[in-house]
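Suppose a colleague, Dr. K., hands you the sequence of a protein chain of 365 amino acids and asks what its three-dimensional shape might be. Before reaching for any lab equipment, you can write down a predicted structure in token form. Begin with the sequence itself:
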Amino acid sequence: MEKHPYQNNKGIALIITLTVIALLVTVSFELNRQLQASVVNSAIIRDRMLLSHMISSGVEVAEAILINDKNDSEIDSVQEDWANPEKVEAYLSQIPFDDGSIGLYISDELGRVQVNALVKFPEGKDFNPPQKDFWLRFMTLILAQQENQEDADLLFEEVVEPSAIINPIKDWLDSNDNDAITGLNGAENEYYKDLDPPYATRNGPFRHVEELIRTKGITRELFYAADDQIMGISNFLTVHGVSDLNDKFTYTGKININTAELPVLAALLPVGQEFLAAEIFNYRIESANEQFVYELTGPAWYKEVPGCSEVEIDAELITTQSDIFRIECNAALRDIQKTATVIVQRVKNKESGKWYCKVLNWAYE
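The predicted structure, expressed as tokens, is then:
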């Protein structure tokens, strides 16, 4: 018996209806997916913006600590509030963030080795003699420490002499013509233009510490870290510390003996007396009844350290003051983290006479 045409149309209508429903369900799922993704992305953007605000607040807290310190004392040392993690945390607790957390670490930038001081500026041609001697001791200690580690021969097959590090740095800094290299292991443009890719020397001050990796002889292992036990030289170096000199610039290279880390302290000492660095380091932080025992005033206070009465550190190398600091601020919110490293310099306003912090560099990681 032949079906009525109306019955065939009903079947077709049912198929069309089911198809439309299937399409609507698919579209609904896709719209829902896109909406959820949009909500998640919006939340991530919101959290990242909030993290930036948290970091800015943390940096402002650090600047306030440093300004208060400047108003209280001309001496800068590890005995002050900015170097005390508990006191820094107390300042941070006053920031009213309902969610998330902020970590803050402040260090003295002039407790580090000023790379650009290796050459005498503003002339920018010759070694700075006290700095050259210091660098020889510093690199001798660093390389000796590295060579005592397992597999050190694999890391330093070619670099074994301090001059193989120091001379290329000097050539990168100096403004002499590019035909003359320093010593037998220096490097000017002739060396760098044969690299792949080729590049030219700066022939002037380093702008960033990471630029040192571009110089001959400095491997990534030496710069960052040879292993988990030893920090790379980048932890002890800075490109900051420029000073005005009759409308020109120079780098004194003076290191704050009140804040320098152990490897830097050891290099400040004469050859054969490096072992006294630990005594000096511990003397600075010795305390009793929650009070520091010793004052770190004049640069020669180190002579009061047991065993150091006859020690002579070159006065051209040390100071007890600094106005340049490194602020490392980390903010965490839910599953997102953000870190900023900010270099600031304390500067006095000529009109008001008040101190403020000038940002020299701000970098996110």
